[in-house]
Write a structure and sequence with these properties.
Elements: E1 6-10, H1 14-26, E2 32-36, E3 48-51, E4 54-57, E5 63-64, H2 74-81, E6 88-89, E7 96-100, E8 103-106, E9 111-112, E10 115-116, H3 149-157, H4 159-174, H5 183-186, H6 188-194, H7 200-210, E11 220-223, H8 228-238, E12 241-243, E13 248-254, E14 257-262, E15 269-273, E16 275-278, H9 282-289, H10 294-301, E17 304-316, E18 325-327, E19 336-341, H11 342-345, E20 355-362, H12 375-390, E21 399-411, H13 416-430, E22 434-436, H14 439-442, H15 446-463
Parallel strand pairs: 1-2, 1-16, 2-12, 7-18, 16-22
Antiparallel strand pairs: 3-4, 5-11, 6-11, 7-8, 9-10, 13-14, 14-15, 17-20, 17-21, 18-19, 19-20
Helix pairs in contact: 1-8, 1-15, 2-15, 3-4, 6-7, 9-10, 10-13
Length: about 475
């Protein structure tokens, strides 16, 4: 009788845990799944904490409800699989604002990550160079080509649309700049439309029409118990053996699979596995790949990341606008790049004692000197800038928390998806039982990471001779 499969997952974030659940559901009965997490906690950038006696997210705060084709997102499907669908809640206040010339203006409707499909709707925030978006008789983007979001939008609609709309929206997600980020990776729907349409406005409208949203349907969701409940449920339902504080330092192929070197240099453990799924950021993955697949390691290790800090404050009865939060263009010269009014945005977080939870994000790629400030200085600066933007002094915080995420957000330069596809093809040809998954390859956001982990799990099942159907 053949022994059960042994699959090692390196990385206990939501990508690795989603992969573990998929393996449990679709791999043969008895498959041994082991998760190795370098830190002392699971979940990666999903981390629910506590501030002033109430729950608050110190990492990702929500997930998209729908996938790009309009169906249920992979995050929602996983949540249903884990029995948590009844805990999904949606924002009670959805309107956000932009800081323009020092004041708040509502984020205009009808845009795709800030790129307008109706120029009149954005006029209060930015003046588009409409004359530049003429039909030149050919699609905006040639087949198989990629370019930066900023290059395309600046060329078609001018600088103000990029600087005041697109850049802050992309910065809120990636902590990067529109002029550096890949169109195909960060805005795939727009890229597909741009291969057909001859104007940018036309491409935005086509992309929106391709994935229509039912009126009133929620865009975002979170879990009433906090996103850490998703982490806990995935770890539990996967049935995986989980090792925390377990750094995988080396990876070597063997005649029957893989040998992992786990733990400190002075006291290593050697673990045998039939297949390995790397669900860690690109640079740690590259270090593990350096021995078995050096060319893939070089390609993967070239991906850069941005670091951010999230400053959360509990404020007693502040005067806050009825907004979910606001985004800050880099041209405004502020340290903060975004702010979320948690207890306004999420009705289930509102407190009878009047305390408001407000979070601000600090740190842009290529300009991260602000992250060298002490926690006290970061909190003081954020408090001062929030007061300035809101036009009223905020009360002194009764509690605060600073969460620093070093190397948290991948920076996808043009051509990223092609490079990743080539690296995966080379890795699959040389080592089919070794797979890559995570935000560093497939994009940010909980649904993308879940799907990435599930896809890698299915690849491993196929490589080991099973059926992922």
């Amino acid at each position: 009788m053949a022994r059960p499969w042994r699959v090692a997952i390196v990385g206990g974030g939501i990508t690795g845990l989603a992969a573990a659940v998929r393996l449990r559901d679709r791999a043969p009965t008895g498959t041994e799944i082991t998760v190795y997490e370098q830190s002392g906690r699971l979940g990666g950038k999903l981390r629910t904490g506590e501030l002033a006696g109430g729950p608050v997210e110190f990492g990702a705060e929500s997930f998209l409800m729908r996938d790009p084709a309009g169906g249920e997102s992979a995050a929602v499907t996983l949540i249903r699989r884990l029995g948590l669908a009844g805990s999904i809640v949606h924002p009670t206040v959805g309107q956000a604002a932009l800081v323009v010339d020092g004041g708040l203006r509502p984020v205009p409707g009808g845009t795709l990550v800030g790129v307008p499909g109706d120029l009149d709707k954005v006029a209060a925030v930015a003046q588009p160079a409409a004359a530049a978006d003429r039909d030149g008789g050919a699609p905006l983007l040639p087949p198989d080509a990629d370019m930066s979001v900023g290059a395309l939008v600046r060329d078609r609609l001018g600088d103000e649309v990029v600087d005041r709309l697109v850049d802050p929206m992309l910065g809120g997600v990636y902590a990067g700049r529109a002029d550096d980020l890949s169109l195909v990776t960060t805005m795939p729907a727009l890229a597909r439309a741009a291969r057909v349409e001859h104007t940018l406005v036309g491409a935005v409208r086509a992309a929106q029409a391709a994935a229509p949203r039912a009126p009133g349907a929620p865009v975002f969701g979170t879990l009433a118990g906090g996103l850490s409940t998703l982490v806990e449920a995935a770890a539990r339902e996967s049935g995986a053996t989980v090792h925390r504080d377990a750094a995988v330092r080396e990876l070597h192929p063997t005649p029957t699979g893989w040998r992992l070197t786990v733990g400190p240099t002075r006291d290593p453990r050697f673990v045998e596995a039939d297949a390995v799924l790397l669900a860690v950021p690109a640079r740690p993955a590259a270090r593990l790949l350096a021995g078995p697949a050096p060319e893939v390691a070089t390609a993967v290790g070239g991906l850069d990341y941005a670091s951010v800090a999230l400053v959360t404050m509990a404020l007693p009865e502040p005067e806050l606008p009825e907004l979910s939060g606001f985004l800050v263009p880099a041209t405004e010269g502020l340290l903060i790049k975004a702010s979320t009014f948690f207890t306004t945005k999420w009705g289930h977080l509102r407190r009878p004692d009047g305390l408001a939870l407000v979070r601000a994000s600090v740190g842009r790629y290529g300009d991260e000197t602000s992250l060298q400030l002490t926690d006290d200085d970061l909190v003081a600066t954020v408090h001062r800038e929030l007061s300035k933007v809101l036009g009223t002094p905020l009360p002194t915080a009764v509690a605060r928390h600073v969460q620093r995420w070093g190397g948290a957000l991948p920076q996808y330069t043009p051509g990223h998806l092609g490079r990743v596809a080539a690296a995966r093809t080379a890795l699959g040809a040389a080592h089919p039982t070794l797979a890559l998954a995570g935000a560093g390859y497939d994009g940010v956001g909980i649904p993308v990471c879940v799907r990435s982990g599930e896809t890698a799990a299915e690849e491993i099942i196929t490589a080991l001779g099973g059926s992922a159907a």
